[in-house]
Every structure is written in structure tokens, then in C-alpha cells.
UniProtKB/TrEMBL annotation:
It comes from Micromonospora sp. HUAS YX12. CDD domains: SRPBCC. This is SRPBCC family protein. It comes from the Bacteria. SUPFAM superfamilies: Bet v1-like (SSF55961). Pfam families: Polyketide_cyc2.
Length: 147
């Protein structure tokens, strides 16, 4: 699933918001808590624990950056009932004064139980993924509009 939003800020500013993991609870409406699992510059190997409430109860996952090309692209992976991969692409627009932020999410594999659950609850899962990613894009847009 791919989601995108044009943000009225240059890629460097959007990148700073996206990669400030410690600020996610204040920045992203759907994130309750984050815990950095090390203290290093954002890039491959950066990992953190993140808690969201996608279905009304807390769900915590450990995320890890596996690819990074500042300030244009990074990939985060985790286990969330399967192998979850989110790619963030920042494409300059409006002569570099804006950014088209694209998020692409995929979920594959997992145990037989998880795969069957995804089939049975597909509609609910798709709605949840859409709500979380669209809200994250709105929140990043809002954060980048603040001086």
C-alpha cells in the first residue's frame, strides 16, 4: 500500500521531522511512546521500540532502519505479525520548496496463524494501515509548517 502527501517544506526539513524518533510521541498522533535502543546518528542500524494503539489497545514493535539515503529515502523493518517493511521517499517539488512524501508499506510472511488472521481480518487491517499512515502524513505536514 502506498500513501503520499505534498508538504510545503523542503526535503531537508521533512527529513529532520521524520528522523527525530525521540519526538514521535509529540509529533505523531498515533504514537504513544518510543524508546531508542541505542544512541547513534539516524541511519542503517538505527533501532527503536514504538508503541501505537491501532485497535484501541497498545501494540509495541521494535523497528530498525535497514536502508538510508539522506534526505531522500529510508526503509524501516519490523515484525508485526509478519515481515513489515515501510519505505519513506522524499521527492523535491515546487523548485525544492516542497516535498512529495511517499510511504510504501508491505507485510509478508509470518506464522500460519498470522497469515490466516490477515485473510480473515483483511478489511479491518487495511483500514488500520490506511488510518495510521494517512494520519502520520498529516502530522508530518503539520510539524513542517510550524517554524
Amino acid at each position: 500500500m502506498t500513501f503520499s502527501r505534498t508538504i510545503s517544506a523542503p526535503p531537508e526539513k521533512v527529513w529532520r521531522s521524520l528522523t527525530d524518533v525521540a519526538r514521535y510521541p509529540a509529533l505523531l498522533t498515533k504514537v504513544d511512546a518510543t524508546e531508542l535502543l541505542h544512541h547513534q546518528t539516524f541511519g542503517p542500524g538505527t533501532s527503536w521500540r514504538e508503541t501505537r494503539r491501532p485497535y484501541g489497545w497498545p501494540v509495541t514493535v521494535d523497528l530498525r532502519v535497514t536502508e538510508c539515503r539522506p534526505p531522500f529515502r529510508y526503509v524501516v523493518e519490523c515484525f508485526a505479525g509478519g515481515h513489515s517493511v515501510t519505505e519513506y521517499r522524499l521527492v523535491p517539488c515546487d523548485g525544492g520548496r516542497g516535498t512529495n512524501l511517499q510511504l510504501t508499506y508491505t507485510l509478508t510472511g509470518g506464522s500460519l496463524f498470522h497469515r490466516i488472521s490477515r485473510i480473515v481480518a483483511r478489511r479491518r487491517i487495511v483500514v488500520c494501515i490506511r488510518e495510521n499512515n494517512v494520519q502520520d502524513l498529516l502530522d508530518i505536514d503539520r510539524a513542517c509548517g510550524i517554524a
